[in-house]
Automatic annotation (TrEMBL):
InterPro entries: Elong-fact-P_C, NA-bd_OB-fold, Rib_uL2_dom2, Transl_elong_fac_P/YeiP, Transl_elong_KOW-like, Transl_elong_P/YeiP_cen, Transl_elong_P/YeiP_CS, Transl_elongation_fac_P. One of its GO terms (molecular function) is translation elongation factor activity. It comes from the Bacteria. It is found in: Cytoplasm. It comes from Flavobacterium macrobrachii. This is Elongation factor P.
Length: 186
């Protein structure tokens, strides 16, 4: 058992008969009354996000997890296939477990968190950014550069990303996997 002082981003806990991952937290010490911790929790079974407030000193049940590097192999419908880079063991995960499945390129390494009690995969941590090639983009119109104008572009994984007007087909762009937004041209 741990307490609210041990809360940190990425910590997996048992809460309301489910396993949640802490996405955000904030320790609050108001001028009047006891301290508390405001958290944003993401369910690892169904992907729902909920806000919860724990009082200071509240006991939380921590789930022990191990992190392993897996390589994304291919997708088959809603199932995504991954291979452990150390043991070459393959696992299949549902699309709902992934944060940004439309940005996964074959051969990409991801970190998979595995529950040590049940040996079941809990969450997939994508790399912070990924480089993808633009397969389709409308040509930019000259004179539309007074503001930060963007246009939709398709990348090699099939995802649609808003990019600046100077991006053309064949360009490689870096995308932030957390927000799914364009970062820079590579």
């Amino acid at each position: 058992m741990a307490s609210t002082a041990d809360i940190r981003n990425g910590l997996c806990i048992k809460f309301n008969h489910d396993i949640y991952k802490i996405i955000e937290f904030l320790h609050v010490k108001p001028g009047k009354g006891p301290a508390f911790v405001r958290t944003k929790l993401k369910s690892l079974t169904n992907g729902k996000v909920l806000d919860n407030t724990f009082s200071a000193g509240h006991k939380i049940d921590v789930v022990r997890v191990e992190t392993h590097t897996f390589q994304y192999l291919y997708a088959e419908g809603n199932d995504f296939h991954f291979m452990n880079t150390e043991t070459y063991e393959q696992i299949t995960l549902n699309k709902d477990v992934l944060d940004a499945p439309d940005l996964l390129k074959e051969g990409t390494n991801v970190m998979v968190q595995i529950n040590t009690e049940t040996d079941l995969p809990l969450a997939v941590d994508m790399p912070a950014s990924i480089v993808l090639e633009v397969t389709y983009a409308e040509p930019g119109v000259k004179g539309n550069t007074a503001t930060n104008a963007t246009k939709p572009a398709k990348v090699e994984t099939g995802a649609s990303i808003n990019v600046p007007l100077f991006i053309n087909e064949g360009d490689k762009i870096k995308i932030d996997t957390a927000t799914g937004k364009y970062m820079e041209r590579v």
